Amino acid sequence: MKTVCMIPARLGSSRIKKKNLRLINGKPLISYIIDTVKQCDCFDEIYLNSEALIFKEIADQHGISYYKRPDRYATDQTTNDEFALDFIENILGEILIQVLPTSPLITAEEINAFAKEMLRGDYETLISVENKQIACVYNNEPVNFNKLKVNPPSQTMKPVQAYATVLMGWKYETFRENMVRYGSAYHGGDGRTGYFELRGLSTIDIDREEDFLLIEKIMMLQNNDFDREIKYYDEESCEHIEVDVESILEKDGLKRNDLYNVNKEIINIYEIINENGRSIPWSRRIIETENNSATVLAQLPGEGNRLHYHPAWNEWWYIIDGEWEWEIEGKKRVIKKGDIVLMKKGRMHKITAVGKEMAIRLAVSRADVAHVYPEGNDV
Predict the structure, then answer these.
(1) How far apart are CA 98 and CA 197, in angstroms?
(2) Mean pLDDT (whole number) for 263-283
(3) In terms of domains, do 109 and 176 share one?
(4) Relative to the CA of 168, which of 156, 193, 318, 354 has its CA 20 to 30 Å away?
């Protein structure tokens, strides 16, 4: 059966302006789902469905087809039934799989499994859902529990299935019939309807500003090949995390810190050094972007930071002047002017200025990088 993928994308959005075009790590949101769908082997054709011609440019760039929906189906009042029926009436096919661009973390494997399940189960409508195994209420009434009985452990409760609308599947013929008979086909109407469970990151749907922030952070960790070691609190091994860089620097003895005068197009490090001098410790952040930050730090002999590690981010330093003693995983060595040091995530380290003069380094990391301190190294 000819299976067509449709990615709907309006230019307008009532909650987040032009969200389908918003950049995440330099790439439009819509491009993530296109790249994922192109990895699938279950589609005969892939269409980007929109009223705006800018999406035709994106479709052409990605080598997929573009369907221009009528402007009357491009408003906040337009229903999914309306633009899906319009598409079905104009694009030949037998099965339509709709994939929303606002869930960019879904995988090609999940999409393939969804399409195969529709064929295997001979469904006329297949809807992606997320199982919520927790007490739920509707209209102030219990859905999956009894108010008069003991609350059971959540893992034994009957799950409630909530729509994870990133994936919807319909047979063309049944969709048309339901639209004629009921004026709606989205939920299945007549015909065999199935529910396909999605889990984890694939169920995150961008609907509000905080959803964008969550997706950006997750992608950032994924791109950084985040391979974390699972640790637990116990009485013998205590650690604590600090992320407030200004507080961290003050605890490390740097009382004069300028962290907000950033991102000038051109800046001279030696002019910064001359402005701040060499008599008291100081820091000056010069770059802060969504991916990294760069900070100049200057300390006197004997000064430095506390023993710590970074669980999720690599960092590196360039030694501008003076000498530093680097303690890395218990081994010490002296680093001098002109050296570059790479510190991989998870490695315990400590830095101390040595020699007779102020030592100065450029630290490149992230503005919100987590510092994990073992017990006894938090003050």
Answers:
(1) 16
(2) 94
(3) yes
(4) 156
